[in-house]
């Protein structure tokens, strides 16, 4: 179970302000391309599941890393996200081949692909994979320590570019969501950055074809 705090920022100005405030704690920046796969009948989406290939690197045709992930049964309440997630590394060249020929993903030697076939019947000849498309994301990763709560947190500041608009979000994976949310709220208040609890995830926005709160 992945547990994250998700706080939505109002606009690009808020994103820039927080990025500047956190700059001394910046550790790395990831350029991500996210692609989603399903059957033509959207079998996985109907079961609140998302199969994602994430490619890392600024060059679409030469990613430096790729990760296959299955996320299922998401719940998002008051800015706390809980979702069942499994991930596997994927050879970047194979990931590109599957992006070009989605049906090929069904033949990949992968526990995730076998799980999807067994539980959802997706990926074989009867329901081959299609690529739904996706979105791009720039993720800045910060290491933030809060002595008052005794927490060391890894913060992820996202700028997500959909075909229909751009969203901005601060995320933090944590085993102590109540404490972490309090730390993030105080941090944003100190930075003078307006925020709201996220009420939808990125995949939900992508599938809706519009920015959701």
Automatic annotation (TrEMBL):
Domain CYTH: residue ranges: 1-210
PANTHER family from the UniProt entry: OS08G0299200 PROTEIN, TRIPHOSPHATE TUNNEL METALLOENZYME 3
Organism in which the protein naturally occurs: Eragrostis curvula
SMART domains: CYTH (SM01118)
GO molecular function: pyrophosphatase activity
Name by which UniProt lists this protein: CYTH domain-containing protein
Domain of life according to the entry: Eukaryota
């Amino acid at each position: 179970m992945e547990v994250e705090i998700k706080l939505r920022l109002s606009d690009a100005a808020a994103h820039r302000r927080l990025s500047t405030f956190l700059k001394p704690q910046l550790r790395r920046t990831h350029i991500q391309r996210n692609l989603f796969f399903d059957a033509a009948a959207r079998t996985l989406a109907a079961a609140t599941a998302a199969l994602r290939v994430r490619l890392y690197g600024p060059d679409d045709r030469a990613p430096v890393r790729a990760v296959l992930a299955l996320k299922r049964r998401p719940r998002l309440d008051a800015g706390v996200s809980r979702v069942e997630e499994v991930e596997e590394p994927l050879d970047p060249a194979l990931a590109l081949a599957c992006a070009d020929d989605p049906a090929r993903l069904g033949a990949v030697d992968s526990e995730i692909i076998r799980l999807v076939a067994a539980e959802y019947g997706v990926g074989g000849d009867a329901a081959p994979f299609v690529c739904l498309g996706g979105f791009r994301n720039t993720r800045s990763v910060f290491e933030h320590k809060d002595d008052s709560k005794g927490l060391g947190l890894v913060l992820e500041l996202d700028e997500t570019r959909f075909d229909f608009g751009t969203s901005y979000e601060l995320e933090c994976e944590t085993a102590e969501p109540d404490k972490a949310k309090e730390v993030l709220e105080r941090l944003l208040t100190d930075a003078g950055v307006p925020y709201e609890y996220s009420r939808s995830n990125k995949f939900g926005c992508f599938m809706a074809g519009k920015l959701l709160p």
